[in-house]
Amino acid sequence: MTKLDxxxxxxxxxxxxxxxxxxxxxxxxxxxxxxxxxxxxxVGMLAEYRIPKVLEPSPxxxxxxxxxxxxxASIFNTKNSKFTVGYQKDFLRDNTIPDWEKIxxxxxxxxxxxxxxxxxxxxxxxxxxxxxAAYGELADRFFKFPIxxxxxxxxxxxxDIVRAVREKLHNSILYxxxxxxxxxKAEAMSKYAHTIVVGNAVYKKGGVEMLKETIVK
Length: 217
Fold this sequence. Notes:
Layout: E1 2-4, H1 12-19, E2 26-29, H2 36-46, E3 53-56, E4 69-75, H3 86-94, E5 103-110, H4 116-121, H5 129-142, E6 147-151, H6 159-168, E7 173-177, H7 183-190, E8 195-197, H8 207-213
Parallel strand pairs: 1-2, 2-3, 3-4, 4-5, 5-6, 6-7, 7-8
């Protein structure tokens, strides 16, 4: 899956190349500077393509009904419960859900302390593999989240931690995101994660070619 940030510039040509790269899906998602106008511009550039499209709204949520799915994140390792249930409650309070089949809850475990999402959500990132795996098992067994997302956001994570989480999951799909900018890294994380998410690499020099290198089938 390729994550595109509405707050970062892309041209129509860029979007066409990304869609044609071989990626399986597009996620529209960002942490800072997200507005309805920026989301609308990016979604508009994606509209003509049949590739599956996911919106991952950040607070305050920007909701649209012209994408295939809406992934709603709950941060499991936060010090502030509003990022686990508070904004999610507001999401339901402030929006009418026309099709619940499109709403997919995600259990996020944020592990890069310097990332915008970690700072914003006050994530507790100093965790050993057993703690991270326990969060994954909690999301899977107790709360029945369909997705557990290990997020290193901009830096490459520890494959052993991703493996530890995978070993505790029985029903949840494991996503990994963070620092994937080569085939070697993509293959390493694909051993354990069901889905890898490539984001920042798209915005680097030669980003589309770098993205193609990460496509693991």
